[in-house]
Amino acid sequence: MEKQINYGSYAGYKETVGNLTADLQELLKLSEEIALVNTAESIKETLEKAKDEHFEVAIVGEFKRGKSTLINALLGQEVLPADVLPATATLNRVTYSTEPYVQVEYKNGDSERVEIDRLEEYVTKLTSESERKAETVKEATVYYDTEFCRNNVDIIDTPGLNDDDQMTNVTMSIIPKIDAAVFVISANSPFSQFEKEFLEKKMLTSDVGRIIFVVNCFGTFTQDDENKIVETVRTRIGKYVMEKAKKVMGEDSREFAVYKRKIGTPRVIGVYAKRALTAKTNGDKELLEQSNFPEFEKALETLLTQERGVITLQILANKITNSGTEILRSIVMQENALMMANDEFMEKYDAAIKEIDEIRNLKRSEFVKINDAANKVFEDLRPVLDNYWSNIEEAAMEVIDNFQMSSDDFKKDRLKLVSSKLTEKIKESMEARAQIICEQIQNSINQAVSGETERLQEFEDEFFESVAAIQRMFAVSDRVSSNGGTLDKVIGAATGAYGVGGIYLGFRESGVKGALLGGATGLAGFYATYYAAMFFAGFFGLTGGLPITLVMMAFAGIAGTFTSNFAVDKILVQERIDKYKTNFKANVKKQFHEMMLNNDFTETVRRQVFSSFDSIKSKIEEETEIILRDTQETLDNLNDLKAEKSEVSQKEMERLHVIAETASELVQDAYAVRKVLNDEISINNPQSEKSEKTQQTEKPEKPEESENTEKK
């Protein structure tokens, strides 16, 4: 019998999620029926997360690249305001609702519900009044009945990346939190200097795998020229991405080889967004095909369902197999224990409790090893941390040394501009240097954590084998249970080669929108700009403890603040260029010294390292204790039951068998799903280029026909 799993489309993915959550609901009932309290609570948590599961897609790019038009084309109708001037001034989220309205959240914590036809009054720069109001808005959520959002996809429209520094930082802050990004580039001005710098300095190396670059054409070129533009953009992106990856990972490293294979060719697609919107509005299928928009929509669908969504499917399938297996084990143990003589049961009960204690001791010893691994990572990073500040300072000094000046630059009407230019160059150099260093640090942490979770597979295998051994303690040698040993084989099939899913992939769940899919997990995205901002904050007399969300605002008005705090007149009179640079360096060095005293970068990294490894311990503790507590509580309940009566009724035995048969079917279904999904989640698997991910896998008719066999 074959089981077909389709998750290559929104509909197929949604159906698969629905089927898996329905199976989990059934397992929840079964676990409650046999009093597996901890397993039931764990299933409830997973179902709660699945209930709120949705995709988030951000549309980013410079202003006036056609972002709002592209979103409207996705939605199939004019929902967001678009204009020939920079329009979007806030984050606008579009989500599904049968009733159209807008919920406006203000920066002061207030919120307001407004009619959808008044949206542009709150989120645009189209009038001075709307721009003033937009400055007070944190985010506007547009609730609308669109087919696209009906697929549990939220679209986030962002302000232009270089329209306003503050809004650029708001846009950058959401990238680590989303599932996918669409970076819009104009065919009329492809790959501007800002877009080049964004790829080189702002975007994390690991972000590329979840970005689709869209070259928005406006019909001013021939088809051949447009194709050449798209190919040029693709080549440039690939070059910039790989050059940066080499710096972060090392060109000869295994990590770079895997990264290069996984990322492959960046997704770059040319579209006519305005033409697509017109086509959808008028129902013109031919015009829609000419816009090339369906190719973009399919690429986005593939990215979300096959690459992002597969993780959710894997998590759900893992929970089914692990929870279902625990139900089966509990039933087998109950059935056999209830057939034992009381004396024999008590002997094995005591041995089982002792074995549970031994498993916990083994777990504690593994935690010591995890701590040792964290200490080793931190010590290995010591040389980088010890040189961090001097490295950043060196970047600033190089800019000052190489900054070209002439005597004309010391004229009063020019010095302010020159100082501003030098300040900006120092800031950019610091950001770039810090970005690379912090990405290298984060890469080292990620690799170490990944290695440790792989090492822990051996512990996980030992853990499951120990739990299975407890069950086998209660085997009845002179009688055959009525299930004929089938449950034992189902358990073996479910926990064989894929047993690692319980903890290993469960741990990675916490990083679904972070480390696993490429977002900043702590250091890389933040410190590249944070310390540059802190430097200038102190240099110009601003508070040294700026909140994370405000640090980049320190760059506003740098030139004016600079000239008021620097001895410009004295420099003009005395030694001009050399003296100017010498005094500038002295102020820079002084500020670096103050930053080192006030901001302990080494301690920040230490916390990052140990919190990463602590998350492994927390996940292991959570997953193993669910099983151990339920096993012990089952034994305690059996102990009480044996004290009350010597044998179980036939009716009770039949009830357990019905539960076991249902759980067995659910485990086998989920096991089949896991076989299909396993390759997709592997880091060594290149990105799929299949247009549709409909795969078939054999569903084992009988457990003994499965590829996996019972653990010995």
Automatic annotation (TrEMBL):
CDD domains named among the record's database cross-references: DLP_2
Listed Pfam families: Dynamin_N
Superkingdom assignment: Bacteria
Key words, A-Z: GTP-binding, Hydrolase, Membrane, Nucleotide-binding, Transmembrane, Transmembrane helix
GO molecular function: GTP binding; GTPase activity
Location(s), subcellular: Membrane
SUPFAM superfamilies hit by this protein: P-loop containing nucleoside triphosphate hydrolases
Biased composition (Basic and acidic residues): 689-712
Protein name as it appears in the record: Dynamin
GO CC, alphabetical: membrane
Domain (Dynamin N-terminal) ranges: 57-216
Sequence segments annotated as region (Disordered): 681-712
Main location, first listed in the record: membrane
Matching InterPro entries: Dynamin_N (IPR045063), Mitofusin_fam (IPR027094), P-loop_NTPase (IPR027417)
Annotated transmembrane regions: 490-507, 514-540, 546-568
Gene Ontology biological process: mitochondrial fusion
